[in-house]
């Protein structure tokens, strides 16, 4: 249905509904989770910027290529085996914050024909988490 899960944390529910929460680490000031992602695309990667002119566009394109090459090298060094990402997901779950009423943290992997679904009963992402995961 596109709406937040019933058990979604307030910051995610507010972002999904477009309500501002006003929290320093939530998407409130930008109005929605989509607005946070769009802001990161513009501010961090220059995607969607207009009126840069030919020279500005050329520089931006070179920066995108440079970052792409760096990420490919980093990924090749970090993920030397096809299954290493699973260990990373388990480590991430161990590092997560969990609501006080959660008796035991849970991590579930569901292998489907076309994808791998990973579920976790953590508190959820806030704006600062999204910005951190988008930073190299």
TrEMBL record:
The lineage of its organism: Eukaryota, Discoba, Euglenozoa, Euglenida, Spirocuta. Residues 1-31 are annotated as: Disordered. Residues 10-29 have a biased composition (Low complexity). InterPro entries: Auxin_embryo_med, HATPase_C_sf. It comes from the Eukaryota. This is Uncharacterized protein.
């Amino acid at each position: 249905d596109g709406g937040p899960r019933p058990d979604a944390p307030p910051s995610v529910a507010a972002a999904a509904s477009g309500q501002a929460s006003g929290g320093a680490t939530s998407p409130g000031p930008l109005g929605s989770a989509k607005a946070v992602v769009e802001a990161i695309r513009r501010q961090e990667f220059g995607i969607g910027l207009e009126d840069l002119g030919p020279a500005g566009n050329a520089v931006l394109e070179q920066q995108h290529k440079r970052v792409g090459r760096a990420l490919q090298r980093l990924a090749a060094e970090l993920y030397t085996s096809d299954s290493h990402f699973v260990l990373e997901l388990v480590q991430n779950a161990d590092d997560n914050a969990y609501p006080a009423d959660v008796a035991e943290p849970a991590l579930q992997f569901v292998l489907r024909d076309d994808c791998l679904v990973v579920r976790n009963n953590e508190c959820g992402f806030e704006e600062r988490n999204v910005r951190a995961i988008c930073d190299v």
